Amino acid sequence: MLVFIFVVIVAGLVTRCIGWLLLVIPYIGTVVTLPIWYTFRAFSLEFLAQFGPEYNVFPRPAAT
Q: How many Å apart are CA 42 and CA 47, to the nearest integer?
């Protein structure tokens, strides 16, 4: 998360604050930051799965 925040700050400074202005627009800001939010959601499910098979959201198919 800190790396993502650092990248946004650096990108905003490099573009002379135009990057931040684009992130303020709701649709553009969502599309630009969607990969990071999706990654955090996916990793949260994998984190939960490590506590046992009853917490696994994506169960593995039975071996035949």
A: 9
Question: pTM of the entire structure?
Answer: 0.59
Under DSSP, the state recorded for 59 is P
Establish how many alpha carbons lie within 13 A of residue 40's alpha carbon, considering only the half-sphere containing its beta carbon.
8
Of 47, 49, 28, the closest CA to residue 39 belongs to 47
How far apart are the C-alpha atoms of 25 and 42, rounded to whole Å? 25
A 10 A CB-CB count for 32 gives: 15
C-alpha pair distances (Å), 45 with each of 38, 48, 52: 11, 5, 12
Residue-wise pLDDT tens digits, 7-17 = 989 999 999 98
Token pair in block for residue 18 = 């135009």
- Cα–Cα distance, 10 to 43 (Å, whole number): 25
